[in-house]
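>> received
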Amino acid sequence: MSTKKEIRRYSIRERIRKKIKGTSARPRLSVFRSNKQIYAQIIDDSKGITLISASSADKEFSSQKSNKTEQARMVGKILAEKALKAGIDIAVFDRGGYLYHGRVKSLAEAVRESGLKL
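>> returned
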C-alpha cells in the first residue's frame, strides 16, 4: 500500500467486512473499481466461493464505446440477470471501501432496477 488513499480505503473496507457477511441465503455483492475497469462478484463467505461475477473487462464490453459510469450500469444489469438465473434474488451490498457515488452507485442502482434486492 503506497498511498494514504489506499490505506484509508483498506481500513474502511475492513470496518465494513466486520459487519457484512455473505451467507448462502443472502450472499455478498462485492465491488472492485480500478482506474479503467469495474468488477463485481456475488460471494458466499460461509463456503468461501464466488457464485457469480461480471466485469467491464469481459468480451462483450470490448466492442462498446461508452463512459465508465455507463459501463458500471451495464455490469450491474448483467450481474443481476446472471444472479436471477442462478436463483439468487437477495444480496447484501459491499462497496469495498469506496464512496457510494459515481460508478459504484450506478452499478448498485442498475442491480436494483434489474430485480435483485440489496
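>> The CA atoms of residues 70 and 87 lie 26 Å apart.
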